[in-house]
């Protein structure tokens, strides 16, 4: 796959005032690490990065030729997005971690899982439950798939698919425990209404007894 091009700025000012300033301008903080280099703090234009990811068929799994403007040492790196952090309330991206890679060395990454096909059990009223959203894999950077598709067409009610049942793309090794259940088809949830006892009519006996006393 062709590498995407990304230009970032070296982050030399760590003050809170500078952080607020760059966020107002549409930038987020980040760092580049890996392959024996000290982490390099950077500032990335979030909109530019998102637009490139959306336009790429490999999405978040894309390779980037990263140029760091103002870097004190070599500012050119081939990287992948390793992790990003969001604000727990607003869900806005606050920081992005890039891992430096070599095209000839395998890396460990988490790849999204997508269920495809029409589940047999779902046709009978069953409910498909996906228990894993990602799989840990090892592959050369150029072989990292944007996602791993899992066909659930033959999945019937009561059946499940384990990680070991998945055939990975060529050149990709799945590291997630093979016995882990990825998805299952469960019977439809039936809601049982509790029986409501009929209202008892108030007894007239006490009133009758009162009349007898009079």
Give the topology, please.
Elements: E1 4-10, H1 16-24, E2 27-34, E3 37-45, H2 46-55, E4 63-69, E5 76-86, E6 93-100, E7 107-116, H3 120-123, E8 127-130, E9 134-139, E10 148-151, E11 160-162, E12 173-174, E13 181-186, H4 205-213
Parallel strand pairs: 1-4, 2-6, 7-10
Antiparallel strand pairs: 1-3, 2-3, 4-5, 5-6, 7-9, 8-13, 9-12, 11-13
Number of helix segments? 4
Spans of at least 5 consecutive residues whose pLDDT stays below 50 are none
Number of strands: 13
Element order, helices and strands? EHEEHEEEEHEEEEEEH
Enumerate the strands of the largest sheet in spatial order, edge to edge or round the barrel.
Answer: 1-3-2-6-5-4
Give the N-to-C terminal Cα separation: 102 Å
CATH structural class of the largest domain: Mainly Beta
The CATH topology of the largest domain is: Ribosomal Protein L25, Chain P
Strand composition percent? 35-45%
* Overall tally of domains: 2
Judging from the principal axes of the Cα atoms, what is the shape?
Answer: elongated
Largest sheet: 6 strands, mixed, barrel
Q: What is the arithmetic mean of pLDDT?
A: 89
């Amino acid at each position: 796959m062709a590498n995407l091009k990304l230009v970032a700025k070296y982050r030399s000012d760590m003050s809170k005032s500078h952080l607020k300033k760059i966020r107002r301008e549409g930038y987020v903080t980040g760092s580049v690490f890996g392959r024996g280099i000290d982490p390099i703090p950077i500032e990335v234009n979030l909109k530019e990065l998102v637009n490139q990811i959306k336009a790429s068929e490999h999405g978040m799994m894309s390779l980037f030729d990263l140029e760091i403007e103002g870097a004190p040492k070599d500012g050119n790196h081939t990287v992948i997005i390793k992790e990003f952090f969001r604000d727990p309330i607003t869900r806005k991206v606050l920081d992005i971690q890039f891992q430096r890679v070599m095209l000839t060395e395998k890396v460990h990454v988490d790849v999204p899982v997508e269920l495809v096909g029409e589940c047999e059990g779902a046709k009978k009223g069953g409910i498909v439950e996906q228990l894993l959203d990602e799989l840990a894999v090892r592959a050369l950077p150029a072989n990292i798939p944007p996602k791993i598709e899992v066909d659930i067409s033959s999945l019937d009610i009561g059946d499940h698919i384990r990680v070991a049942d998945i055939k990975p793309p060529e050149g990709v090794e799945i590291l997630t425990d093979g016995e882990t259940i990825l998805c299952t088809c469960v019977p439809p949830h039936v809601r049982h209404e509790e029986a409501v006892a009929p209202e008892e009519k108030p007894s007239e006996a006490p009133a009758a007894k009162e009349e007898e006393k009079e």
